[in-house]
Structures are given as structure tokens and as C-alpha cells.
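User: I'll paste a sequence; please echo it back and then give the predicted structure.

Assistant: Echoing your sequence first, then the prediction.
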Amino acid sequence: MRMRVLHIITSLLTGGAESMLQKVVDATRPLGYDATVVSLTSASAIGRELQENGVPVVALEGRGGILLPHQMFRLARIFHRVQPHVVHCWMYHSNVVGYAVVRLRAEHKRPALVVSVRMALDAEDDRKISRSVIRWLDARLSPTADALVFNSQRAAEQHASLGYCMRQASVIPNFFDTEHFMPRPREAAGIRAELGCNDAAVVGLVARFDKLKDQLTFLRAARIVVGRLPRTRFLLIGRGCNKENRQLMQWIGECGLLEQVYALGERRDMPAVQSALDVAVNSSITEGFPNAIGEAMACAVPCVVTDVGDSRFVVGGAGIVVPPRDPGALAGAIIELIDLSPRERKNIGERGRQRVVTEFSKTSVLGKFTNLYDKVCCRLDIEPR
């Protein structure tokens, strides 16, 4: 008997929550969990990849995660056709939609509802007002969920203080495929040769272009590093981090780094790119659980992270933690790691990879998701058929 899971997410653009959904879907299908994925907005890159792997994906084309009546009606039809045992929602907007669509069914026939919160609130002043309203509504509705999942302890504590019902709450961290993300020296050498960085120290920031990711502080730190170590090169990888981004290129120019910074945009060869780094950086002003840092650690790369979300917990002893919005501290940590000998950096990187293998492995974390699905179905007497 196979369990049918309807995943609802605000978007399928490349991002932490979206990537985690993709990993959960891909990993649970061989275990007897059939997935249908609904994006409130577009299918985008991750949606297309899921479709190529045989997963049904529907994009409702809502604007900003808000559905019009005809789009809500379409979701209701999908819900009726799939008849899921579990509805798993992944973000604030999709949580609220999930509450509505699940309650369309008679109480004794309804599926289990799992809602998720995947961000911390370390920079609340930088949030959109509309998101605050949706989060307030999500909190008010949270007592009716069958399970509430956070991906970081910091986020759980912060949302509890906002009125989220923690009765059915749990923390399930992200997981990493350490057979995919692993040191790839040959491919890394190819990346470095392609960029002309063979003899340079290479520092990378993997994140979409967003003020919450704070690329500007990273660039200001890079300017300080170059003043001390002129041969250092910096990579910006992620959605919007390309030469077509006028704001980003203006910042790079203002920092005098046009020769030292490479804006590479989105890449699908991330294990090779991560392996090409000497230091991986997360400069975010808010974060839940930093996927890109976990992937860098799996590739045995030392890391520098800001002290937001669960970043300190994730890194452990595999890098340096600095305050957010502090270019000087960020630069100092980067310089400290570059100044180490190759053997010392390698030792730190190996500790990081071992931490990911031990604490955030696919097997252990995935088991928490499948156990959760089974538990909520058992509680509601839902039997897959």
C-alpha cells in the first residue's frame, strides 16, 4: 500500500525550502510515498526537474502566493482527484491555503495536515508587511494542524513567542546527500581553471540575490580581504547573482572588485562549484537552516557564517561564526581561514564533512519525515490503500 502525499508550496524557484521539498519527494518515492506537488505560483526550475523525474507538478500561477477564486477552485479539483492521505505545506502562504483546502472535506474523511515554517526571524524589520499578516493568520490557525514542522530550533522558539501552537510541533533539520555533495577535486580543478583562479584563494557565497542574504556586506568584506590578500577571488552563485543584475554589478564596481568577483548566477553543478572553494560564506541577516553551508561542509570546505538561525549549530567546529552586518568581522574570519596552511584548512573541512554525515544524513532525517507521516495518519485512523 502506498501513501499519497500532496505537497503545497508557495513557489518552486531555487531556494532552501524548495530544494528540501525536492529532496524529500525524490527520497520518499522509493519508500512507498506517492507525491503530487502544487506550486501556488510557477513551476520554475525545481518544478521542471520534478516533472522530468515523473512527479506530477501543478503551477497555479498565483501572484505572490495569493490565489484568486478560480485558482483555489483548481486546487480543490486537484485535491479531489489525488485524494491524499497527507497534505504537507511548506511555507506561510501555502500553510494558510492548506488549512482551507483540507477543511473542504468532511471531518471524518479529511487527510492529515502537516504545515511547515522554514525561516527564522532575526531581521524582522526587513520583512514584508503582507508576509507578517499571513504569518499572523498562520499562527492563529496552527492549533488545527496535525503536525507543525520547523527546520531550526531558533525558528521554533521565535514562532512560539508569536503565538504558534507548539502542541504538535517538532524540529526536523535539513538533510544532505553526502554521496552527491562530496569533495570532487578533479571537477573543482576544472572550475578553477575555467575561471582563471588556479593560484588564488577562492571564497564563495551561494544564495539567491536578496537583501536578507546581504550580498552587500559580503562585497564590503571582500574589499577588506583584497586589501590584505590581493590574489583572493570571490564567487557569487545563485538566482539573480549574474552580470544582468544592475544593482549587484553597481555594488561590485563601487567596492572596486570588478576583477576579483565573479557573478556566476544559478549553477546545476554545485558539488563541483562548492568543492572549488577554499572558504564558503553565509552572510545572511536572517536564516533558518543554511542549506548551502551544509552542502559546502559535505564537500569538506571550511565555512564562515553569521550568527543567525541555526547557522552556529550547523557549522559546529567546522568554521567561524561572526555577527551579521559586520564586514570587518566577516573579512577577519575569511582572512583567518585563508592564512591557515592547506593541511589545517583540510582538517577543518574534514571535520565539517564528518559532522554532516553524522548529524544531517539523508537516512536519519528522512526517517523523521516518514515517521511523522505515518504517525499523523495513525492518529487520524487513515490507512493507505
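The longest strand covers residues 3-9. Residues 185-359 form a domain with the Rossmann fold fold (CATH 3.40.50.2000).
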